[in-house]
Write a structure and sequence with these properties.
Length: 373
């Protein structure tokens, strides 16, 4: 809330002097949501980092792979592929549409020829927006196989941190990835918070420490185990341990989640990255941002676990639909590239929806909560 002043009264009018009037600032967070501490669980590859060391893909290939998941078609009368939309989107534009990825898989050269060539101009546009300004930076930029230099982490991610700081928000950032780019992302963010990013020098004002020690989360049928340095926590004795741990984290850190467990569970939510949520805790709001979050629980990447009863140590597995745009955000990489406020808008939307979610839980019976209603 900013303070504005009314115009002064005319001389000699005898009117009272102007008084300050509170005026809402565009973009400021307010209300109950604005008082909660945020814990942002952020995927890395194709969420804030448009590349992937494991696959050897730079921004050019990563964009092509993402476009495969966001372009839609169907089989024609003769079985040939027919596009149903020229506009990429996360959701199918019509009921019978399927993504190119679902039919043919990811293609790192998607727009170079064949069916995907029609999206070549879009691909070129996004690449231009990813171009690094000025001299390359050892940690903040990356160079592809053609010698082109790009942002390592998206500007919209830095913008989110800067905006939360300017709003006076308390928050922590936890990178959560199946890949191997965690150390790289942590180093880049530390450099940015040291004021080295040419577009975001004010990030040096953020009092966020960066723990460069990569952590690890491993899952089994019996428990979830977290390790980082000398730290070791497990859910076998108490299901709340990891919720309390993440809720109390300060600054920036990161963990490599358990890809093999996800694969053994057929890439379903059952084997996904665990996220614990306690709607009875008024002090914190956990939000997970990942490009592979989907409403289909047989094909998604996060396993949400909700403590339905106050003080309970046994959470229930919640469907993605219950927490979509509440605690779970599916990244639209293309929007995250074109709109610097993208992640900020995602967080604001989740905060607004979280208030409504809590209100619904407060008015429902315990059995309805356990059913995810």
């Amino acid at each position: 809330m900013a303070t504005a002043f009314l115009p002064p009264p005319p001389p000699g009018s005898g009117a009272a002097a102007p008084v300050p009037v509170p005026v809402p600032v565009a973009g400021a967070m307010s209300g109950r949501a604005g008082r909660r501490r945020l814990v942002l669980h952020v995927d890395i590859n194709s969420t804030v980092l448009p590349a992937d060391t494991v696959s050897g893909h730079g921004p050019r290939e990563a964009l092509n792979s993402f476009l495969c998941t966001a372009t839609w078609g169907r089989d024609g009368p003769g079985g040939e592929w027919q596009w149903v939309s020229d506009r990429p989107s996360l959701r199918a534009p019509c009921p019978d549409a399927v993504s190119y990825h679902c039919r043919y898989g990811r293609d790192p050269a998607f727009t170079a020829g064949g069916a995907g060539q029609r999206f070549g101009s879009l691909h070129a546009r996004y690449l231009r927006l990813l171009a690094w300004p000025g001299e390359p930076h050892e940690e903040l930029s990356l160079r592809d196989g053609r010698g082109e230099c790009y942002h390592l982490l998206l500007p919209s991610f830095y913008r989110l941190l800067d905006a939360l700081h300017r709003d006076g928000r308390a928050f922590a950032v936890v990178f959560r990835t199946f890949g191997t780019d965690l150390p790289r992302a942590l180093r880049a963010l530390r450099c940015a918070l040291d004021g080295q990013h040419p577009q975001f020098p004010a990030l040096r004002d953020l009092a966020l420490s960066v723990d460069l020690t990569p952590g690890q989360i491993r899952c089994s049928k019996r428990e979830v185990v977290l390790r980082r340095g000398a730290e070791r926590l497990a859910t076998r004795e108490d299901g709340r341990k990891l919720y309390d741990y993440f809720s109390s984290l300060e600054g920036v850190g990161g963990f490599q989640d358990h890809f093999d467990w996800w694969a053994r569970n057929q890439f379903s939510s059952q084997g996904g990255k665990p996220l614990w949520i306690d709607p009875h805790d008024p002090s914190v709001h956990h939000i997970f941002i990942d490009d592979n979050i989907r409403l289909d629980d047989t094909d998604t990447i996060v396993c949400p676990q909700v403590f339905s009863e106050r003080g309970s140590s046994s959470p229930r597995c919640a469907p993605t639909s219950e927490l979509y745009d509440v605690c779970l955000v599916r990244t639209d990489l293309l929007e995250a590239i074109t709109d610097e406020d993208y992640f900020l808008r995602c967080v604001r939307r989740c905060e607004e929806n979280y208030d409504r979610y809590l209100a619904r839980l407060g008015s429902s019976s315990p059995s309805q909560q356990c059913d995810g209603q």
